[in-house]
Amino acid sequence: MSKPWARAALLALGLLILPGQAGAAKVVLDPGHGGSDPGAVGVNGLYEKTVNFDITTRVRELLVKQGYEVVLSRETDSYMSLQDRVTFKDSQSADLFVSIHANSYGSPDVRGAMVLYYDDAYPQESYPASEAMKVLTPQSRQLAQEVLDAFVAESGMQNRGLVPSAVYVVRNGTMPSILVETGFLSNAADAALLARDSVRESMARGIASGIAAYLPPGTVFPDLTGHWAREAVLRLKAQGLVEGAAGGRYEPRRVLTRAEWVTLLGRLFDLPQAAAGSGCSAGGAGSSVSGAVYGGGEGCRPEAARGAAAFRDVNAGHWAFAALDKAVKAGVLEGYPDGTLRPDRPVTRAEVASLLQRLSGAAEGQAHPFGDVPAGYWAEGSIAGLRNTGWIDGVSADRFAPEKGMTRAEAAALLDRYTAAAGRSAVPADGR
Ligand SMILES: [Zn+2]
Q: CA 220: distance to chain centroid?
């Protein structure tokens, strides 16, 4: 696994500051086998690795013409382990993965095409899937169906259907993934077809158009395809409230950072300006915990007057410096006792609820069903209050997970409900 924090920090550099960057959808293509591993050997002597590679490069050509960014797991006739293929696809920040193979079977009569994907409804105990692939079952299934339909339509191959499968490259990884079995090299008719250029080209057309049906070129936030928060994110984008990360992705499953959160708030609210020199925010009273993403607390901190520059881990080169500075001066973002602001640290669900409740003017609440929010918990009133408004849910009927990081998808759902309730105009407060 990569180091998630290092990755998050790198990604944060490009976040929310690239308005209008289109970002091509990115596809990883994986020609099966290679090098010392020929894969199946056809009744006509054809090597599977050769067919796979040829069809894969044809798919690449078609996709690139349509504006996709395409990378291949191997560019030469070389051996690559299954884990190396998974490591490679996960290193690419891509939107989907398609492995291309040809089949073989004991009975020479069996022929046709099939598409494999991981389906969490049919788990295999000895071959556990990655957590991401379990969650991505609907997306992988949809991609598999689109590719199978187009493949069969273009190539005329017999349709053997979708196959829920736990093969390595589709049950591991972090993006929708499928494996296309183009035909059976153990069947004389299929093997003859796989030897023909025109048939390989039609197969490639089918795979490429199936990919395009699942993820049209130029899709905004391609990583939200099939995601529950997609509509909410697109509504926020239309209001200028959210933008993509580098590469045009939204990264819905990543935890929101402090810098991202105050950037969003700065767009939503006219943050109060601290009185010059006082260092005190104009915000309301309330308890304060060190480092919290909220404030207006009992202590008027000197750094509130100096702004974000008061902290040793923030300089004017930070992508969110202006928003951080505004939030610190408004008293809604506080630092830590060691003099850091930690802008790239995640915000918790309690911190988000607390600040949104205050800034929105929603009333605090009392009753709530969350067993993990004890009586007297510092953000209890905010959590109960926002739940009363219907803007926020628990992670289940009786759990709020207050100390858990809030994901970017959860934040979008929350802000979408808030903006709908507040009847905000399409023009954000800062005029962007
Ligand atoms: Zn194979």
A: 13
